[in-house]
Amino acid sequence: MSTLCRGQLVMFLILLQYCDRNGVRVTVIGNGTNLLVRDGGVEGVIIQFGGSGLDHVCVRENIIECEAGVKLSSVVGIASQHGLGGVEFLDGIPGTVGGAIRMNAGAFGGTIFDRIAQVDFFSLKGKEGTRRRAELNPGYRGCNFFRENVVYRVTFECLFGDPRLIQEKVRQYREQRWKTQPFGKSAGCIFKNPVGIPAGKLIDDLGLKGLRVGGAVISNKHANFIINEGNAKAVDILRLIDLVRERVWAATGDRVGIGDRGDWA
C-alpha cells in the first residue's frame, strides 16, 4: 500500500501540536460537502483532507485500506471491481471516507461503521493512535470519539461476492437516489429521523415543501433537503431550519433533530 507519507503525517502532527500549545482552534473537514459554514467564516486553522492527496487505496483479499481523503464513490467502485460487497449503499453519498466516519454516514439501512475493521487517527493535540471497531461507539449520524480525534486511514472488511450482482446493487441504489433526491446545491439531509417516521415525510406531511427564507427553500422533491437557489446566506438556511423545528413542535409536540451538522462551523 502506498500509505500516507510519513513526512506528511508529521507535518499534520506538528501543526496540531503548535495549535494546541497556542490555543488556536482547529477544524478538520473532508470535502466540505455536508457542511454549513456560518456567514463570516471559521476562526483558526482549517485542515481539508479532500483533494489533499490523502487518497491512496490498497486491496488485499476482502480488505480495503484507504486514506481519509478518498471519496466514498471511489471506495464503492474499487470494491465492486474486486467482487467485494457490503459498501454498495455508500454510492452517491458525496464526500470523503474521513468525513463519512465523523458523522457515521449511512443510507438504505446501512452505515459506514458496519464495514469498518480499524481506524488510524491522530488527536487534535497531535498524538497518533489506532482503534478497532469494537473500541468505538458510533451512534446515529455521529461518533463521539471523532469529536477530538481525526481519522487519517481506514480499514474496511468487505464481503466476497459476484461482481455483477454487486454492480447491479450499486446501480439500483443509484437509481433510487436519482428518483427521490433533489439535484442542486445543498448540504444533504438536514434533520435526523425521529423514531417511527422519516424526517422528510414528517415535514412533507405538514405541508412545508417550498417553504423559503431568502434564497433557501425546502425541496419540493425531498423535504429533508434545503436547496440554495444561488443567493442564500447561511443565516437564511439556519432560519429556515428553525422555522421547520417550530412548525413541527407546534404540530406534534416533538422536535426534529439536526443531523451531524449539529456542530455548525
Describe the structure.
The protein is α+β, with helices and mostly antiparallel strands and 265 residues long. It folds into two domains: 6-165, Uridine Diphospho-n-acetylenolpyruvylglucosamine Reductase, domain 3 (2-Layer Sandwich), CATH 3.30.465; 182-252, UDP-N-acetylenolpyruvoylglucosamine reductase, C-terminal domain (Uridine Diphospho-n-acetylenolpyruvylglucosamine Reductase, domain 1). 29% of the residues lie in helices and 21% in strands. The protein is built from six helices and 14 strands. A five-stranded antiparallel beta sheet has the order 3-4-10-8-9. A three-stranded antiparallel beta sheet has the order 12-13-14. A two-stranded parallel ribbon has the order 1-2. The two termini are 34 Å apart. The model is unreliable at 258-265 (pLDDT under 50).
Structure characteristics:
265 residues, five-stranded antiparallel beta sheet, 29% helix, three-stranded antiparallel beta sheet, alpha+beta, 2 domains, 6 helices, Uridine Diphospho-n-acetylenolpyruvylglucosamine Reductase, domain 1, Uridine Diphospho-n-acetylenolpyruvylglucosamine Reductase, domain 3, 14 strands
Question: Layout of SSEs?
Answer:
Elements (H helix, E strand, L loop, with lengths): L5 H16 L4 E4 L15 E4 L8 E4 L2 E5 L4 H10 L2 E2 L11 H6 L3 E2 L2 E2 L4 E8 L4 E5 L16 E9 L1 E2 L2 H18 L18 H7 L6 E2 L2 E3 L7 E3 L5 H19 L13
Parallel strand pairs: 1-2
Antiparallel strand pairs: 3-4, 4-10, 5-11, 6-7, 8-9, 8-10, 12-13, 13-14
